Amino acid sequence: MTDARLGRVAVLVLAGAKPLDVGIPAQVFSTRASMPYEVRVCGAAPGLVTGGDGLSYHVADGLDALQWADIVFVPGYRHPDRDDPAPEVVDALIAAHDRGARLAAISTGAFALAATGLLDGKRATTHWHYTQALATKYPQVTVDENVLFVDEGSVLTSAGAASGIDLCLHILRRDLGVAASNHTARRLVAAPYRSGGQAQYVPRSVPEPLGARFAAVREWALVRLAEPLTLEVLAQQASVSSRTFSRRFVDDTGYTPMQWVMRARIDVARELLERSERSIEQIAADVGLGTAANLRLHFQRILGTTPSDYRRTFAHGE
């Protein structure tokens, strides 16, 4: 981790908070030797907070934790279209953002962020059941119901509970690099990375066996990135036409097949840059990009930096 200020995480528990939504950031960023974060679970005031689904939370901190935090998570809560956050909560979120903290909502926590006005003119998402309610209540927010999460820089939103994991892993990738994010995903027994552009749910018209088959093709491709992987090769592995494969792949992942392959190659290159001493030329060959010049070209296009600069920023050693 290159900036210690990124290590303070507050999880703001509001009345009606959903247990999974509270638990996800608390567990992902939990204070442990391998994670350079400190986590505080807080509420509008210290003490008991009545949650949803029959659970309540005893929090040690109040809104002063938001003055301390560099990342503030707002878990989802019940009846967000009906119950507005208290004015002092809204003011504390705005003050934290003005101070430079990132605000991240899980599921219906997006309603609390929208109440601050900080999502006005920006894209956002929430649980698919509430996307229309969010758009109606906050018409200045551009609500996208077909994504897992949205990163607008200092304000981030995600869909239902499971996509909260995706959002947390996305933040880890930004802060610590791919290797640390993948390590956390393995600890959680979660998918290492699902793009924010991936759909929240598979349309009912898509047969489940086909979706499983496409997932298997992605797993197959991940261990063959050094080999030529064309649309035709991937479609043949799935036993469908190239046209069907391409259309369904975008529905499943948010990327075209070749975009997905390229990002997978760049992700493996990132981990090798972080954790190995292999040369740029060797890494380019390892991930199927052929030459160092080709790796640099795609690295710059996708990440906006060079492999050498990335290695200097995120190299952790073995």
Ranges where pLDDT stays below 50 over 5 or more residues in a row are 1-5, 196-208
Across the major sheet, the strand order is 2-1-5-6-10-9
Q: Which class of secondary structure composition applies to the elements?
A: alpha/beta
Q: How would you sum up the major sheet?
A: 6 strands, mixed
Helix content: 40-55%
Q: If helices are DSSP runs of H or I spanning 4 or more residues, what is the number of helices?
A: 14
Tell me the Rg in angstroms. 21 Å
Distance between the termini: 15 Å
Given the C-alpha coordinates, what overall shape results?
globular
What are the secondary-structure elements, in order, as H or E? EHEEEHEHEHEHEEEHHHHHHHHH
Strand content: 5-15%
Mean of all residue-level pLDDT scores: 87
How many strands in all? 10
List its traits:
globular; single chain; alpha/beta; 14 helices; disordered N terminus; two-stranded antiparallel ribbon; 6-stranded mixed beta sheet; 318 residues
Question: What does the model show?
Answer:
The protein is built from 14 helices and 10 strands. With 318 residues, it is an alpha/beta fold. Strand 5, helix 3 (87-98) and strand 6 (102-105) form a beta-alpha-beta unit. The longest helix has 19 residues, at 257-275. The radius of gyration is 21 Å and the shape is globular.
